[in-house]
Amino acid sequence: MNESPTPRLSIIIATWQAAPALENCLRSIIDQDFGSWEVVIADGASTDGTVEIIRRFEKHIAWWQSKKDHGIADAWNQAIGRARGEYVAFLGADDAWSSRSSLSTIFNTIGDRQYDLVTGRAVFIDSKGRRFESGGAWEFDKIERRITICHPGCLHRRDLFSRFGMFDTRYRISADYEFLLRLPRTIRTLHIGETLVEIADGGISRRNRWLALQERYRAQAQCPRIGRFRAGLNLVDKLWRIPVAKALGIPN
What we know:
alpha/beta; Spore Coat Polysaccharide Biosynthesis Protein SpsA, Chain A
């Protein structure tokens, strides 16, 4: 772990009962050939051995806690309060940087410029080992209908959270999407068209599809530039696309 006062990147991991995957996530960070990072972990009082793994890697972790929280958005907010990095990235316990050079690729591309969001591509891996890529550039107009970027591994300039607020803890699944809807057209963005992260395709949004759709609708309906009517149209559009995509074997 980098010992400088201000690391370039704070990597936030919010975890609960994810011991089998956490070690791989942490090793993918420790093995990076770029050193200016810190790890911040907010665990929701796991009882499956997660804490033991955290303690085993403690020398590489800037801050961690294990206590009851009010969901992933609450855990993220608590961790952001402890983060010191110029940028903040969020990984799930079952996510990992795709190669040893993921972070050096990101920061070599950033150079000495400043951005608000830095996005990349990711490989999703399902329970059968099938892989598919996702993750595009930030597009202000398209974010109205869906997340166009890959949120795990996306770099957020840390001051975005002081400028536009923290994650809304009323959302169990879509707090990241609701936050993105608050961002203005004028934010400075960079897209790196390389695969940077590997993601286990079995997260809470996949397991709770109906709740995810409900929260997506609510976030859009409450967004001043979208409103209830267009949010309803977007929901209907999504509802018919899901079974079609499933029938065609297209990830959605």
